[in-house]
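Journal club side-thread
Mid-discussion, someone asked how the predicted structure for our own chain would compare to the paper's figures. Pasting it here so we can look after the session.
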Amino acid sequence: MSNKNNQVIFTAVIVIAVVLWIVFSGNSSKAPSQVTDGATQATDVADTTAATPATNGDTAATSSDQSANTSNTNSSANGSMIADSGFDVKTDGFSFENYGNEKGVTNLKANDMRRMFGDKVCTRIKGDTCTLTSPARQWMKEINAAMDGGHCEGMAVTSLTMFHKIEDPNTFGAPKTNDLAFDGNTPLQEDIAYWWATQSTEPTMSSVITGKPSDIIKLLSASLSQGQNADTFYSIGIYMADGTGGHAVTPVSITDLGDGKVGLNIYDNNWPNELRTINVDTNAETWNYQASTNPNEQESLYSGDTLELTPSKARMETQDCDFCSGKGHKNTTKGMNTFVLTASGGSLDPAAPKANTTGTTVFVTPDGKRLGYVNGKFINEIAGASAAVFKSAPTVWNNNGLPIFRIPEGITVTMQIANDPTYKYTVSAYGDGKVVKVAKLDVSATKATVVNFGSTVKSVKIKSAVKTSPDIYIGDEENASNKDSSTQFSNVDISEDGEADVTFDDETDQFNIDGDVAGDFNLDVVVSDDNGDYSYSTNDVALADGADMSFDIDQINSEGDALTLQVDQNGDGTFDTQSDVTDDNTAETTDPVVAEDATDN
């Protein structure tokens, strides 16, 4: 609307929108389908050939109108306007294009985590400085890494918060969004990263609406017609037919093209200063659009029979922290364990199959219920469980893909993985103030490696199908001495068909490692309390095949403290040797997260 203060014009636009709503509805009373929570969605999925989840377990649509007009730029310029928010891509969109994690780019920091989740993510706060707990720091690192595929979600949402006057562009350096500089603008980059990250948190995830195109057009019409004063506004999620290549854009206006066809005009952050159009057929219930996850990726046809909206209200709330302890604070997602997965490496040949195209990566309960990918197809049989894939992921199994699975606490699960052996795999498990991460895991394409996290997150058992040397990291925000701790075993050699068992008792601060582990590994420990951080490192800890080792991290109270390593050489339950191993200041931490745990953000 050109003049939002003119009540007559405003009322007229609302009347037109309502009339068109009725026309499009065909006198149907069916409302857009809304995902209310992952549990509801999960129990509806039973077909092992279901499509890959897009967001919160929703399946991306397949195209049924490949022959439709696929022009994107101003394709609706000649139609009549249905609804117009007044968003001008040359004023209210960013002048710079979507970006990854190039040198100099800043993503989430500790202050952003505190803004998102509250003080519970801090192990200590001094002045305005928050030192993150080890689970919060690990989560932040993985979320930041996922943004390398593009910041589309953050840019789509940030442009909307500025247009709707929730945030002021002047705060970031200019009176108009389009005038904001990108290079060196750390506050703006952090803000974009903040809004990007909310796609993976509650209650934002559960608020996502997925519906047929005609219903989504009705919902957007009502919102866009309210202009800057809209009570609720939306970002749009689009996906390729196989559920990959998620991309987020900003709705601007809707144009009637006749015969049930409409142009959904958008600000696409891959194309700054250019109004583009998603072509929608409300009769056929299809849509199509030429898009990509980021400007560096080749454009492909995005099409389907459902569209996804994320409403603004849920993003504005303090987000629930599913990796925080339930002690001493209200946590609405307490009772959920979250698993974040990545893959790295693989063939450099772009024509080579990507990880998980045909592989199996699935969580299985003792009674055989499954959640994950079976022969490349998504399946969810676990009541209350859900799955999500970040927008900007070119493939499901990708450093930028980060499949996220949520499973109710108390349900024992094992992860079974038989996948492309040219990749190395990582899984991080979060629950009730703890994180367990297994990184650099080698797997077989035909025989499953099994990773068992039990019903709680604080220990891990690995039965490997192939010889592998993963890193195993365990972080606890509040151990027996009310301290935050992070402990990493680097390059733990596990034989083919061998087992490795790492357990942590948070009541005694005792670690134990045993199984078919033979060789040397590096050990790094960081302990944090209200006074500071104390780190311990030692290289080349030797452990014979079949031997067990135990130590107590409560011994680390200051820099330079030693750990007492007790070894049961033959696994008969009796410690045969005991040695005090001093801190090796020359030791290098394989995973920088341990070193970073000793610093404030």
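Post-session note: The first helix runs from residue 7 to 25.
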